[in-house]
Amino acid sequence: MSAEHAHLPPGVELITTLPEAASRIPAGAEARTIRITLPPGDLGAPPHRHPGPLFGYVTQGEILFELEGQLPRVLKAGDAVFEPGGNVIHYQGANNLPDAQSELVVTMFAQPGTPVLTVVSAQELAERRHLRVTQS
Q: What is the pLDDT of residues 48-62, one digit of tens each?
């Protein structure tokens, strides 16, 4: 914890920081706070991309999370997540629990009027297959 956060009042906890975040936010962007609630075993949205970066926090359960260029990983309640948005494909955001709800709250920075997500076509997924990281 840095010195400027050492004297936070009781009940205030700094979870994580992302120093380079400001450089990723598009000029003129609006901030959108979004809650994603996934019922038990829900696969989440199909592969998609977001119009801008997002930063968030798993509030409940476990999320199987996979971005293009990264290995899939399980995010548990209390874990923070960053996604750059733009041209990066978000492959998975599934509930990793078969018997409990999972939830994620994110703040996305995007141009007003852009969709929260855009589903990626099967053709584009095939063309970008080489960018997906898989465990050997």
A: 999 999 999 999 999
